[in-house]
Amino acid sequence: MKTQRIFPGAVLISFGLYFFLEQNKIELFEGFFSWPTLLGIIGFAFLLQAYWGKDYEAILPGVILFGYGLHFHIVNRLNLWPNDIGIFILIISLGFILKARRTKGGLFHGILLLVVSILLLFYDSIFKWFGVLESGLDKALTFWPFILMAVGMYVIVLKKK
Questions:
Q1: DSSP label at 96?
Q2: How far apart are CA 113 and CA 94, in angstroms?
Q3: C-alpha triplet 93, 98, 104: angle, nearest 5°
Q4: pTM over the 0.70 mark
Q5: At what angle are helices 107-121 and 123-130 packed, to 10 degrees?
Q6: Predicted confidence (pLDDT) per residue in 57-106, tens digit
Q7: How far is CA 20 from the centre of its chain?
Q8: Is the dihedral of CA 43, 48, 51, 54 positive or negative?
Q9: How far apart are CA 122 and CA 116, in angstroms?
Q10: 95, 21, 90, 27: which is closest to 58 by C-alpha?
Q11: pLDDT higher than threshold 90 for residue 113
Q12: In angstroms, rounded to a whole number, what is the distance separating the alpha carbons of residues 8 and 142?
C-alpha cells in the first residue's frame, strides 16, 4: 500500500539538515550550498517515496531531479564528465528504465531516449567510425532532426491503433 508521508518527511528532514549545515558553516564539499544540492535533495525524497512508499511513479521525477543535481555538481569537477544535452537525455532515460522495472511501463521510452542520448553523446565518434563524414553523407545528416520529428508525428498521429 502506498504511503504519502515519506516524501514530505524526507524533504523536511533533508532541508533541515541542509540549513543546519549552512548555519554552522559545515560544507561537506565545495559548492555544497547551492541549488544543485537542493535539486538532489528533492530528487532523493522522491526516490525514498518511490521505494519505501511503494509509489513507483515517483521514480522518474526522483531520478531526473537527483541526476540533474548530481550532474551540476560533477560537471565542473571531472574533466571526463560531458556537459552536453545528451547527458540530460541519458538521465531521463535512466529514470524511465528504472521506473519500467517496477511498473512494467515506459521501457520503450527509456530505450528510445537512451539511444538518442548515446547518439548525441558520441555523435562525432560514431560517424568517424563509420566513415560517414568523409563519404559526403554529412550533408544528408543535417536533416536528422527532421527525421526525428517525422517519426514523432507518425507515433502521435498515425499510429493510433
A1: H
A2: 9
A3: 105
A4: yes
A5: 70
A6: 999 999 999 999 999 999 988 888 888 889 999 999 999 999 999 998 88
A7: 29
A8: negative
A9: 10
A10: 95
A11: yes
A12: 46
Give the Cα separation of 118 and 90 in Å (integer): 8
Contact 53, 6 (CB under 8 A): yes
Q: Which residues of 70-94 are buried (b: 16+ CB within 10 A; e: fewer)?
A: bbbbeeeeeeeeeeeebbbbbbbbb
Extract the C-alpha cell encoding 110.
Answer: 527509456
Residue 11 is which amino acid?
A: V
Which residues 6+ apart lie within 8 Å of 94 measured at CB? 63, 67, 110, 114
Dihedral sign for Cα atoms in the order 4, 6, 9, 11: negative
Sign (positive or negative) of CA dihedral 34, 35, 38, 39: negative
Determine which helix (DSSP H) or strand (DSSP E) holds 14, and give its type and residue range: helix 6-23
Best CA proximity match to 42, nearest among 22, 62, 60, 59: 62
Q: Extract the C-alpha cell encoding 17.
A: 539538515
Q: What angle do CA 135, 119, 50 make, to 5 degrees?
A: 175
